Amino acid sequence: MDALVEQRRHFRKPVFRPAQIAFSEKAPKLDCNAHDLSVQGVRLRLTTTYGIPHESDVINDVTRKPGRPV
């Protein structure tokens, strides 16, 4: 089996956009970058993953959607 064969169900569009992770309305937002976008989610690049909660919101452009680390 070839390890380079794409096995995802949804196509991922390569992007490079600023994004943020919001933990609550009052907490400061964590800046990050969006690198891949699909109908199922977004791949984020962070400087650290320390302290990332299991549930938070991802702000990409002007949209805010619930997210979780996978």
Describe the structure.
- The protein has a domain at 21-67.
- Helices cover 0% and strands 46% of the residues.
- It contains no helices and five strands.
- It has a five-stranded antiparallel sheet, with no helix packed on it.
- β2 (30-37) and β3 form a beta hairpin.
- It starts with 12 loop residues before the first strand and ends with a strand.
- The relative contact order is 0.25.
Task: Provide a brief overview of the structure.
With 70 residues, this protein is an all-beta fold. 0% of the residues lie in helices and 46% in strands. Strands 3-2-1-4-5 form a five-stranded antiparallel β-sheet, with no helix packed on it.
